[in-house]
Design goal:
It contains no helices and eleven strands. It has strands spanning 2-6, 9-12, 17-24, 32-38, 45-50, 56-58, 66-71, 76-81, 90-98, 101-104, 108-113. It is globular, with a radius of gyration of 13 Å. The N and C termini lie far apart (37 Å).
């Protein structure tokens, strides 16, 4: 499956951004989807995940501020990010996983200024 992420940018603290990830090539609904992020000098970390069923999970640092959703008709994964903080600055990656298959998008930069 091919993943194309978009929606990153520069925003002030307290602002909002909406990331989208368009999937193509396979049956999108069969995949568990997630957003990861990687800040400079840090390991890539899970931000939010949504199963092909109903399971949703968030990192503690984003609970109450970020919302993950998927549209299995439009083959799109979305991350709505509100009340952004400087520590949210990172490259954000969408991920599709099914069994031992694991796919990554190219990443989109999110920069939050204080």
């Amino acid at each position: 499956v091919q993943l194309q992420a978009s929606g990153g940018g520069l925003v002030q603290a307290g602002g909002s951004l909406r990331l989208s990830c368009r999937a193509s090539g396979r049956t999108f609904s069969n995949y568990a989807m997630a957003w990861f992020r990687q800040a400079p000098g840090k390991q890539r970390e899970l931000v939010a995940s949504i199963g092909h069923g109903i399971g949703i999970d968030y990192a503690d640092s984003v609970k109450g501020r970020f919302t993950i959703s998927r549209d299995n008709v439009k083959n799109t994964l979305v991350l709505q990010m509100n009340n952004l903080r400087p520590e949210d600055t990172a490259v954000y990656y969408c991920n599709a996983q099914r069994g031992n298959l694991n796919y990554w998008g190219q990443g989109t930069q999110v920069t939050v200024s204080s």
